[in-house]
Amino acid sequence: MGRKSAKSKEKRQQRKEEIARLAASQALVNKANKQEDPLAPFFVFRSFEKNGLCLTLECKLSGSLDSETIDWILDLEKRNMKALYEQCDWGWNDKLKKEEMTDERAWYLIARQPDSKPVAFSHFRFDMDYGDEVLYCYELQLEKEVRRKGLGKFMLQVLELIGFTANMKKVILTVLKHNPGVKEFFIALKYSIDETSPEDNMIEQYPYEILSKKNKKLVSN
Length: 221
Fold this sequence. Notes:
The protein is α+β, with helices and mostly antiparallel strands. It has five helices and eight strands; from the N terminus they run αββααβββαβαββ. Helices cover about 40% and strands about 25% of the residues. It holds the Pfam family Acetyltransf_1.
């Protein structure tokens, strides 16, 4: 009885510690989501002037965006991603994609030209992922005319700054396997296969991989 009691006590203690850890993680996510503007502390990162571009960045919840901007976001997403979705078993569904991208939890980092025309966006969320507090980058989409000028890299670095400053453990994202150029882009920026990324097997093959970059201040390996 003594050994069983000791083991039971140890399991209860571990469970209590895990519950406390998850509660603390969720509290960090809740705090991050209560921010009025996650970009506010980083004034220097509100502008991008390089390679002929002169852009201003803003960060807002989906519910704070005007309908014209939402329409542009959905249109750019469709132009850039519909064909790729249709090349795998995900398929494309306008209604489901709109619901996902206009969810009340969706944050947007948007780059605009001096005339306020939007040219790039990232849809991201502060969330829990397999028990960890993370900044999940759902999308990073650019208009053709602003690509290959350093803007995508800059916006991703801004997301990392926002996420790590909010004490998220990592920035995480999903890439399609049949879009290798995008994966190469993230790998070059020090992202790696996340431990939660599914592995193909005899029963199921996955069309995507999950990449992440850890917050070095919080995660030692």
